[in-house]
């Protein structure tokens, strides 16, 4: 064989089949596990983020009482509650965008953007005098800030603690419970002693300190950076999960349940006062519920790691709905102004739902990661929360409208029934997800 023939035989074929092009978005670079110190520092930073992002909106009941009785007595409660609903639900409604932002540009970048927005909203509220100004600052601007910082916080635990994801994320979200325990009392005291402007400024300094420290921790210790695509742009939104039957069933059931989730944070204090409970004790009920939910979330996280994430989520929804119907509903029935009976039933209610019915907040990211994979987790959880968040936004206003539509204006029974049934039915519907696993 001549040299020319050998070159022809060994030359690459111009028409040889090529490797198929991969048009899917590559996962983020997954580095070696960070050292133990970095793991726990990042977990602590995420805890601090939820303390601000979840704890402050969960304390809105104190602001609501101040606005309705002092600042805007002419405004109907349904309008006032919209401020707190926006602050509490924008992080969910905007999750498809802000969760994707965190995956594409890095968790530390998302935390920086959210810190600037959240702190700006609080300081802007300190100089507000009109209702629409509080709506824009305390409601929308602060809500936008929480939307950016929340998803890095609830997503980072999955790659730090694979086998104990339930417990780790329960610890992260317990920051919001601790904030909801501490901040109502602090806010009430500050409003009484120093006024609204100083209260907002103080909360702004607290938010700046905690979120600023979280940003620096993620910037220095979080090794995961987004991988850039060389040949094609990355997708801003990713809706592929909407073609998955498991995702759609879980989404529908959770949307029903979460519509009934938020009203208790807004209505437990005024409903207790309407039944003759002392105003100080009524505010204490909200703090007790948030404080006990720390133990409740850690407990349900422990249960989830050993007996199944989805099972734990279903149980949490069902138990919370049952607590509404078994304890809170009897407390507001009868209008007897029997404060001792109301105190007993409402105390049992907040203890019950705090310990047994608060785990779903931490479990949703855990279940999403368990069923649909942990790559680009912030995007997946954000997409899920964007749709569920519409119900979260509507729930408090709907419950408050039910109360306002009653003849006396203080009939809370139908609102409590509304919230409890939604959570109970949603939890039972969620069991349909098992058939697709």
Automatic annotation (TrEMBL):
Major site of localization recorded for this protein: membrane
Pfam families named among the record's database cross-references: MFS_1
Transmembrane segments: 40-60, 80-97, 104-125, 131-154, 166-186, 198-221, 247-266, 281-303, 310-331, 343-369, 381-402, 414-431
Record carries keyword Membrane: yes
Gene3D superfamilies in UniProt: MFS general substrate transporter like domains (1.20.1250.20)
Membrane topology (UniProt): Multi-pass membrane protein
Stored PROSITE patterns: MFS (PS50850)
Subcellular localization: Membrane
Domain Major facilitator superfamily (MFS) profile as annotated: residue spans: 202-437
Keywords recorded for this protein, A-Z: Membrane, Transmembrane, Transmembrane helix
Protein name: Major facilitator superfamily (MFS) profile domain-containing protein
Organism of provenance: Sporothrix eucalyptigena
